[in-house]
Amino acid sequence: MSDVTLASNDCPVRRPVPQKKRERGVLAVVVLTAAMMAIEIAVGYISGSMALLADGWHMATHVGALGLAAGAYALSRRYASHRAFAFGTGKIHALAGSTSAMALGFVAAAMIVESAARLFAPRAIDFASAVPVAVVGLVVNILSVFLLHDDHDHDHDHDHEVDHNHRAALMHVVADTLTSALAIAALVAGRFLGWLWLDAATGIAGGLVILKWGVELCRSAAFELLGVETSPALEDKIRDALEQESGATVSDLHVWSLGSGARSCVVTLVATAPMEAQVYRDRLAPLKLAHLTIEVRRREPVEESSMAS
Predict the structure, then answer these.
(1) Rounded distance between C-alpha atoms, residue 205 and residue 89, angstroms
(2) Structural domains present in the chain
């Protein structure tokens, strides 16, 4: 089989990316969360409420994680056209998401340990100070979820887009919303029903839920960082598009994630009568691959040899 290679290597021109809705939302949430954190810590010190102090410092970890998410967006946008990033800066989002997921796991573990300790050694709770601030915190968290939530990012059209950076920021805010709601329920029950144990029990339950979220996010972000392709259906679509009615056979195919929903593909075709590489590229155009390299090899026809009698 002799090689007649027609290579088509398409690297999109990387231009500076404007500030997007998600980045603006994360910045707004950072400001809101930081302000609420400062209020809770100040009121906690003034009132002597350990519950408010603990929640305030817990919120500080989320400020750090959300600040990391905002920084990732800024870096991704700043270096989008830098030549050092041959395949773009999409994986910066996955790296930030993975780091935030680990932080989320540490926060959840700390919640579980502290709540378990309080379950066996209950502490006095300043209900008068804790309840109003917890309610304000819940309102701020709900507003933050609203700011971060968008049905889909209109800046991308890829079928399998997952913005791990945005997902991590949203999970931090949802985790805060969950803990605030559980805290209010526990504080109300403790004040009016005397169920002081409920405060610790809800802390353990909330910590377990948040820990599960963190593990799932860390796993998916790690897959993207390692280039693990979790969508075999996309490979099947590529094979079908290239082999159907073309007389070509896909002999080698590699698809991997570039981050932020973009996919790269390197494919080798073998054909008896190969067409121009652009013909094959046009067949894959509907899949919107961010980077595509096609190599076409010519298959020599099998010649039948006759034997003299």
Answers:
(1) 37
(2) 8-12+230-298 (3.30.70.1350), 21-225 (1.20.1510.10)
